[in-house]
């Protein structure tokens, strides 16, 4: 049971959503680095990669990112800074807004997710977390 002074998990993740009707995320991918010899296949792979990148960006907006950072200091000098991020979640109900070539070698994909879908996804997530914590 949470203490009265602690905010409920749902209240911690909803303020940003209250300001937006729709979340929008954009992903990018470079055509020439796709692992295929055929240029047409490279374009298709870049489109797919840019869409996956957009889904990743949408997932970051819905669930946030886990950030691990390590800094090594010796003699009051930073020797090493390491950052690792991780995002995990389920996205459904996203709308494909556009797939656009950018320049000669990049594709841009934009997805949107309406407020109701975001609220559903967050409630699903919070239910899963509560279930795990009660085991």
Keywords:
135 residues, alpha+beta, three-stranded antiparallel beta sheet, 39% helix
Explained architecture:
The structure is a single chain. The protein is α+β, with helices and mostly antiparallel strands and 135 residues long. It has one domain (9-127). 39% of the residues lie in helices and 33% in strands. It has four helices and five strands, in the order ααβαββββα. The chain has helices at 9-13, 15-18, 39-63, 115-133; strands spanning 22-30, 66-74, 77-86, 95-102, 106-114. The strands form two sheets. A three-stranded antiparallel β-sheet has the order 1-5-4. A two-stranded antiparallel sheet has the order 2-3. A hairpin with a 2-residue loop joins β2 and β3 (77-86). The longest helix has 25 residues, at 39-63. It is flat. The two termini are 14 Å apart. The model has no long low-confidence stretch (mean pLDDT 87).
Q: What is the topological layout?
A:
Layout: H1 9-13, H2 15-18, E1 22-30, H3 39-63, E2 66-74, E3 77-86, E4 95-102, E5 106-114, H4 115-133
Antiparallel strand pairs: 1-5, 2-3, 4-5
The major β-sheet equals: 3 strands, antiparallel
Distance between the termini: 14 Å
> What is the rounded Rg?
19 Å
Contiguous low-pLDDT stretches (5 residues minimum) are none
Sheet/helix structural class? alpha+beta
Q: Could you give a short description of this structure?
A:
The protein is built from four helices and five strands; from the N terminus they run H-H-E-H-E-E-E-E-H. By secondary structure, it is an alpha+beta fold.
């Amino acid at each position: 049971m949470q203490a009265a002074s602690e905010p409920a998990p749902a209240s911690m993740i909803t303020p940003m959503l209250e300001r937006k009707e729709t979340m929008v995320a954009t992903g990018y991918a470079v055509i020439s680095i796709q692992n295929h010899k055929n240029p047409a296949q490279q374009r298709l792979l870049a489109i797919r990669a840019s869409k996956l990148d957009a889904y990743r960006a949408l997932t970051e907006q819905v669930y946030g990112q886990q950030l691990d950072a390590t800094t090594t200091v010796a003699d009051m000098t930073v020797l090493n800074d390491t950052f690792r991020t991780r995002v995990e979640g389920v996205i459904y109900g996203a709308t494909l807004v556009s797939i656009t070539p950018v320049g000669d070698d990049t594709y841009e994909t934009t997805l949107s997710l309406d407020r109701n879908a975001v609220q559903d996804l967050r409630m699903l997530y919070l239910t899963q977390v509560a279930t795990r914590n009660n085991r």
